[in-house]
C-alpha cells in the first residue's frame, strides 16, 4: 500500500474530492503485490486517519517503531551469536555482529539525533549466568596460582582487569597480586594473603586456608590463562550488551533518542573489552636494540713549555 501511494502521481485535490478514481488506481497497483486486497480495507484505512494534515507526524511514529525493531533484531543476533559460539571458535563472528549493531545505531542516530543526554530509564537486565561456571572458576584459580609463582609475568598482562574474573574473590586476589607486583614487593601465597586481608577480602567469611589453597595450585602460563579469562569476559560482555539493548528496544516508553544513547553506552563497554583483547593478542614487541657504543673522544693536544729549539730561536 505504501509503495503504491508513493509511486503513483498525486491526484488533483478538486477531482480527488469528487470521486475515488485515484483510490482505485492505488488499489489496483497494490493488488499486484498483495493478494486479497479489497476496496473496503482501503476505505477502512482512510477512515482510521483522524487528521490527514498530521500525516508527517504519523510517518515519524512509524519510522521510530521501525528503528526500535531494527535495534532489537541486531541486538538479538549479537546475543545469539555469543550463545552459539563454541569455546574454540574465533571471536570474529561476535565482532562482525557488534559492528553491524553499531552501524544500525549510527543510522538511527542520523535519523533521530539525540536532543539531550537522558539515558533510558529501563532497568538493565542482570548478566546471564556464565556457561561452564565450574570450569571458569577452576581456570581462574590456575591463573592466580601461576601469577603468584611467577609475579614477573603480571607485567605482561596489564590488559586483564579484576572485572574479567568470574568470582569476586578471584577478582580481589588478582587486584592484590597486581598491587604487589606494581610496588615491587615480595609475592608468595603468604604476602598475597596478607594483602587480601588488608583489602578486606576476608571480611565476608572467606577462610584463609581457601585463599592459600587457591594461590598454591598448579602452575602453567600466566599469559595463556589470562587470555582465556579475558575471552570469557569479552563473550559475557557482548551477550550482556545485546540483552541490554534488547531491553531498551522492548520498552515502549524509551524514545528513539534514549535508544541511541543507551545503545552507544552499552557498545562502549563492549569496545573497551574488545580493545583490551586486541592488546592481549598483539605480538610482544621485541626488546629495543642496545644503543651503539659511543666513540671515545680524541685526546686534546697538550700545551706545555716551549722546547729547547723553540726557546733558542726566541732568544
UniProtKB/TrEMBL annotation:
Q: Which GO terms describe its biological process?
A: DNA replication
Q: Which GO terms describe its cellular component?
A: cytosol
Return the annotated region ranges for Disordered. 279-315
One annotated GO molecular function is: DNA helicase activity
Q: Which Gene3D superfamilies match?
A: DNAb Helicase, Chain A
Q: Which UniProt keywords apply?
A: DNA replication, DNA-binding
Domain (DNA helicase DnaB-like N-terminal): residue spans on this chain: 136-218
Record-linked InterPro entries: DNA_heli_DnaB-like_N_sf, DNA_helicase_DnaB-like_N, DNA_helicase_N/primase_C
Listed name of the protein: DNA helicase DnaB-like N-terminal domain-containing protein
Q: Where is the composition biased (Low complexity)?
A: 305-315
Q: Which intervals carry biased composition (Pro residues)?
A: 283-304
Amino acid at each position: 500500500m505504501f509503495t503504491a501511494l508513493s509511486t503513483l502521481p498525486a491526484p488533483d485535490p478538486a477531482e480527488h474530492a469528487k470521486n475515488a478514481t485515484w483510490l482505485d488506481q492505488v488499489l489496483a497497483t497494490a493488488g499486484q503485490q498483495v493478494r486479497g486486497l479489497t476496496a473496503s480495507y482501503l476505505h477502512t484505512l482512510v477512515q482510521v486517519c483522524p487528521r490527514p494534515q498530521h500525516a508527517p507526524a504519523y510517518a515519524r511514529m512509524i519510522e521510530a517503531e521501525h528503528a526500535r525493531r531494527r535495534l532489537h533484531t541486531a541486538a538479538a543476533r549479537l546475543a545469539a551469536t555469543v550463545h552459539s559460539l563454541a569455546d574454540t571458535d574465533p571471536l570474529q563472528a561476535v565482532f562482525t555482529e557488534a559492528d553491524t549493531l553499531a552501524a544500525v545505531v549510527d543510522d538511527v542516530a542520523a535519523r533521530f539525533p539525540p536532543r539531550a543526554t537522558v539515558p533510558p530509564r529501563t532497568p538493565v537486565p542482570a548478566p546471564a549466568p556464565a556457561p561452564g561456571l565450574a570450569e571458569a572458576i577452576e581456570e581462574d584459580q590456575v591463573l592466580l596460582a601461576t601469577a603468584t609463582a611467577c609475579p614477573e609475568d603480571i607485567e605482561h598482562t596489564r590488559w586483564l582487569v579484576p572485572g574479567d574474573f568470574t568470582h569476586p574473590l578471584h577478582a580481589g586476589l588478582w587486584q592484590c597480586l597486581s598491587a604487589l607486583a606494581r610496588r615491587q614487593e615480595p609475592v608468595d601465597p603468604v604476602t598475597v594473603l596478607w594483602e587480601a586481608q588488608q583489602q578486606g577480602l576476608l571480611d565476608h567469611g572467606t577462610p584463609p586456608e581457601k585463599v592459600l589453597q587457591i594461590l598454591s595450585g598448579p602452575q602453567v602460563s600466566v599469559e595463556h590463562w589470562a587470555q582465556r579469562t579475558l575471552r570469557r569476559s569479552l563473550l559475557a560482555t557482548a551477550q550482556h550488551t545485546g540483552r541490554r539493548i534488547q531491553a531498551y528496544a522492548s520498552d515502549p516508553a524509551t524514545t528513539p533518542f534514549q535508544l541511541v544513547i543507551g545503545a552507544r553506552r552499552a557498545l562502549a563497554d563492549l569496545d573497551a573489552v574488545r580493545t583490551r583483547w586486541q592488546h592481549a593478542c598483539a605480538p610482544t614487541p621485541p626488546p629495543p636494540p642496545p644503543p651503539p657504543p659511543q666513540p671515545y673522544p680524541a685526546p686534546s693536544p697538550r700545551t706545555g713549555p716551549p722546547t729547547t729549539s723553540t726557546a733558542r730561536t726566541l732568544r
